[in-house]
């Protein structure tokens, strides 16, 4: 899988390219990343990538031409490597909410993406109309630029690729994963068995796999019902909760 990022700050992408499990996977060739600076596709002495907005108002707007040239260069390099055309993704408040399901879809497709990391007040709408194929958002808040959002999306997808995590089953226990029916993960414990007077829950020490699995499921249900009841309703609507799950949920104290 290959990702491209059109960004004024290419050095920011070293965080996923060079560090941690994603960095190790990049070194192993499981995925690749290239950053493209739109300033490299300008033709004036000041390498201008933005200008004042028509109609007035605060801030500056990113120019369409340097962005489009950067996308063309990325698509051409992908084609030279035998890769198909990648979706061009703009990180924007108007975009589709990116969650675990979208990360799983991105990882499964193995197609990658070209991320447009906007800055300033925004991006010329004509570039969006001509070249952007998808718009994604991390949530209802505004960042200084699209780089942090792109980093999060890349990390969430890459860690799901085969061979990235040391234990392939680790991702299956992530919160929001379909293997957990979209619920929150259960609490985790490690050594020592007693820390500052607090003990590891007894079921985890039992060695009884079915009992451990049920304890984790009930903890997941309880935590999700408390913190994210909307996820319980989603799992219920899609038929992912068993009768045993429903009985356990019914036994929980009612929220005031």
What do you see in this structure?
The chain has 256 residues and is an alpha/beta fold. It has 2 domains: 157 residues, 3-Layer(aba) Sandwich (Alpha/beta knot); 77 residues, Trp Operon Repressor, Chain A (Orthogonal Bundle). It is 39% helix and 15% strand. The chain has a 5-stranded parallel β-sheet, with helices on both faces. A 3-stranded mixed β-sheet has the order 3-4-7. A hairpin with a 2-residue loop joins strand 9 and strand 10. Helix 3 runs parallel beside helix 5, helix 4 crosses helix 6 and helix 8 packs across helix 9. The longest helix has 19 residues. The model has no long low-confidence stretch (mean pLDDT 95).
Question: Which key features would you list for this structure?
Answer:
single chain; 256 residues; Alpha/beta knot; Trp Operon Repressor, Chain A; 2 domains; three-stranded mixed β-sheet; 10 helices; 10 strands
